[in-house]
């Protein structure tokens, strides 16, 4: 194996750490009333963060930061209204993401999207840290092809334990593009906007490629994921959860399997070339056939499966099988 190759064990260790995060989250919640509330930095614009840590403000809508160059950097717990990409060139411990804490491994890359909270509470102590950050405002993308492409970059909603573990070569590719962006921002002429968008798309596409490779390794080491997924669905109905919670969702299944919704969905797609939602629907429709054949009415079948309205069940059944539940029952008699 080459020196720069990410080992499967590293990915497994990173993925399994979500259980530790959940324990930490529970400890945090149990001690919420006794601990002072951490001050949160509102990152409404990219330069709100740049000014806080003493980084140069190069553009109102995009900021490229090299932490190694900062003299008076401090931790901050941030509430983002912008997108962010962070590369750690050293291991950072006890960072916050929502209600959980996590450790960011060396050469790991993580992304945040507007509406997310992350970072580490400021203790007033100046720190020396290494790595890079790229923040960009959604307004930068307005009207561009990249704006329409953004929903496909699902990694912006991955959990922190699902950070991208980069090889040295992969890190160098991303960092070189960030450096090129920073040089372009210093030029600031009539071409800068278009060049910055082009660099940004290159970075996002490279991250997507590297994540695809990581997902492929994760698929190999998670060969039982589909079995656990199916068993989870069986358990859901065996326990009657559909009667109080409705139909099982991708979000519910991901949480029970200790994965973020998007990472779980991307893993399933990598393994099956299909979506987790479609797999859930096929499972539910299979149950529907059995209940209808057993003599259960359409209304009762709908309720037993967790549908709120029989009309919704009938519509989904016809969409899935090409015939209504009544037509199916009459054909099977």
Instruction: Indicate the low-confidence ranges by residue numbers.
Output: 1-8, 10-35, 93-104
Note the run of SSEs as H and E: HHEHEEEEEEEEEEHEHHHHHHHHHH
So what's the overall shape? elongated
**Major sheet, described briefly?**
5 strands, mixed
Query: How big is the Rg?
Result: 24 Å
Query: What percent strand?
Result: 15-25%
- Number of helical elements: 14
Distance between the termini: 61 Å
Multimerization state = single chain
- Order of strands across the widest beta sheet? 1-4-9-6-7
> What is the overall pLDDT average?
84
Helix content estimate: 40-55%
Write down how many β-strands occur, each being a DSSP E stretch of 2 or more residues. Answer: 12
Secondary structure class reads: alpha+beta
Helix and strand layout, with pairings?
Blueprint: H1 8-16, H2 18-30, E1 40-43, H3 46-53, E2 62-66, E3 73-74, E4 77-80, E5 83-88, E6 92-97, E7 100-104, E8 108-112, E9 117-119, E10 126-127, E11 131-136, H4 145-149, E12 164-165, H5 168-187, H6 192-221, H7 225-238, H8 242-245, H9 250-256, H10 261-272, H11 276-293, H12 298-305, H13 310-321, H14 325-332
Parallel strand pairs: 1-4
Antiparallel strand pairs: 2-11, 3-10, 4-9, 5-8, 5-11, 6-7, 6-9, 8-12
Structure notes:
- The protein is built from 14 helices and twelve strands.
- Helices cover 50% and strands 15% of the residues.
- The strands form three sheets. The chain has a five-stranded mixed sheet with strand order 1-4-9-6-7. It has a five-stranded antiparallel sheet with strand order 2-11-5-8-12, sandwiched between helices. Strands 3-10 form a two-stranded antiparallel ribbon.
- Helix 6 crosses helix 10, helix 9 packs across helix 10 and helix 12 crosses helix 13.
- A hairpin with a 2-residue loop joins strand 6 and strand 7.
- The radius of gyration is 24 Å and the shape is elongated.
């Amino acid at each position: 194996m080459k020196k720069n190759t990410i080992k499967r064990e590293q990915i497994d260790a990173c993925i399994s750490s979500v259980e530790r995060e959940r324990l930490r989250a529970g400890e945090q919640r149990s001690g919420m009333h006794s601990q002072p509330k951490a001050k949160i930095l509102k990152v409404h614009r990219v330069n709100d963060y740049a000014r806080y840590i003493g980084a140069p403000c190069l553009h109102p809508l995009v900021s490229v930061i090299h932490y190694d160059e900062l003299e008076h950097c401090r931790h901050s717990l941030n509430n983002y209204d912008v997108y962010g990409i962070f590369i750690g060139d050293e291991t950072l411990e006890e960072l916050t993401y929502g209600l959980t804490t996590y450790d960011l491994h060396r050469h790991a890359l993580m992304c945040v999207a507007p509406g997310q909270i992350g970072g580490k509470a400021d203790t007033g102590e100046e720190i020396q840290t290494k790595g890079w950050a790229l923040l960009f405002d959604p307004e930068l993308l307005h009207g561009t092809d990249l704006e329409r492409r953004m929903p496909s970059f699902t990694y912006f909603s991955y959990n922190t334990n699902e950070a991208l573990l980069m090889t040295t070569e992969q890190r160098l590719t991303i960092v070189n593009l960030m450096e090129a962006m920073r040089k372009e921002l210093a030029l600031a002429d009539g071409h800068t906007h278009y060049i910055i968008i082009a660099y940004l798309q290159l970075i996002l596409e490279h991250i997507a490629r590297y994540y695809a490779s990581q997902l492929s390794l994760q698929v190999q080491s998670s060969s039982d994921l589909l079995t656990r997924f199916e068993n989870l669905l069986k358990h859901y109905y065996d326990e009657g959860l559909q009667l109080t919670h409705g139909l099982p969702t991708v979000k519910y299944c991901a949480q029970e399997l200790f994965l973020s919704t998007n990472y779980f969905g991307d893993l399933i797609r990598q393994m099956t070339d299909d979506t987790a939602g479609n797999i859930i629907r096929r499972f539910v429709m299979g149950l529907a056939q059995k209940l209808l054949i057993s003599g259960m009415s359409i209304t009762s079948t709908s309720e037993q499966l967790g549908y709120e309205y029989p009309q919704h069940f009938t519509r989904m059944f016809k969409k899935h099988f090409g015939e209504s539940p009544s037509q199916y029952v009459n054909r099977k008699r």
